[in-house]
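Before we proceed, please read the two lines closing this message. Report back on whether the C-alpha cells fit the sequence:
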Amino acid sequence: MVISDFARDSRNNLESNNIGEKGAQALGEALKTNSTLATLDLHDNKIGENGGQALGEALKTNSTLATLDLQDNSIGEIGGQALGDALKTNSTPATLNLESNSIWYKGLLAFSEALKVDLTLTALELRGNLIHPKIVKAFSKALQSKSNLTILDLTCNSIEGKRAHALSEVLSTNSTLTTLYLTGNSIKGSGVQALADALKINSTLTTLDLQNNFTGDGGVQALGEALKTNSTLTTLDLWRNSIGENGALALAEALKTNGTLITLHLQIIRSEPKELAQALKAVKINSTLTTLDLWAYSIGDNGAQALAEALKTNSTLTSFNLQATRLERMEVKHQLRHSRSIRL
C-alpha cells in the first residue's frame, strides 16, 4: 500500500507486513496530516523503538485515529514512552493494544501519567510486558483519579503479592473499569483475598479473568463470599486454578444467592463426585447463570445425573461445557445430550 492510498482510507489492516522501522516512520509522517484514518492495525510488523517513537510523534498532532494495534512490535521503552507522552496531549485514541512489546518501566510510567489527564482512552492492552512492580502502583494511582478506562488487560505480567493488593485498591474506588484481565499472574493467597474484598465494594466491574493463577480453595472461597454481595460481575473465569471440593462448594453456595453472574469458567477442577453432585444442586436454584464451563472436570456419572436433575427445573442455563470429562453409563450421556446446549 502506498501512502496516498493510506491517506484516503478510514481503516487499515497492515498486520504482519514486515514494514519495519522505516515503514512505520513513513506512516508516522502520513498520520501527521491525515484527517480520515480511524483504525490502524500494525500487529507484528517489527517496527522497533524508532518506529514506535515516530508513531508517538505523529499522535501528538493527529486528531482522528481512535484505534491503534501495535501488538508484537518490540517498541520497547523508547517507543512506549513516546506513545505515552503523546496521549497526554492527544484526546482521540480510545483503544490501544501494546501486547508483547518489551515495555517495562519508563514507557509504562508515561502511560500511567497519561491516564491521569487522558479522558478518552477506554481500552488498554498491556499483556506480556513484564511490568515493573512500581508501575502497578503507578497505574493504581492513575486509575483512582480521573481516568475513563473501561478495559485493562494485564495478562502475564507477574502481578503478585503487593501488586495484587494495589489493584484491589483500584477496584475499591474506581468507577469506570468494567473488564480486567489478570490471566497468568501467579496471584494467590492474600492477593486473591484482597481482590475478593474489593469486589464486595466495587459496583462497575462486569468481567474478571483470573485464569491460570494460584487461587486454590482459599482464594475461591473468598471469591465465593464476594459473589454473595457483589451485584455487577457477570463473567468470572477461574480456569486452571487448582480448585478442590471446598472451593467448588463455596462457589455453589454463592450461586444460590447471586443474581448477576451469567458466565462461569471452572475448567480442570479437582473434586470428589459426591461433593460435585452436591455443588451442582445450586444450578437448580440459580436463576441468572447461562454458561457454565467445567471442561476436564472429573464429573463422573453421579455428578452428571445431578446436573440432569438440576436442568429439569433450571430455566436459564443454556450452555454447559463438559468436554474431556469421563462418563461411563450411556443412559447418563443420553440424558445430558437431551438437556439443552451441553457439549460432551
About this structure: The chain has 14 helices and 13 strands. Residues 328-332 have pLDDT under 50 and may be disordered. The longest strand covers residues 11-13. The two ends are 47 Å apart (CA to CA).
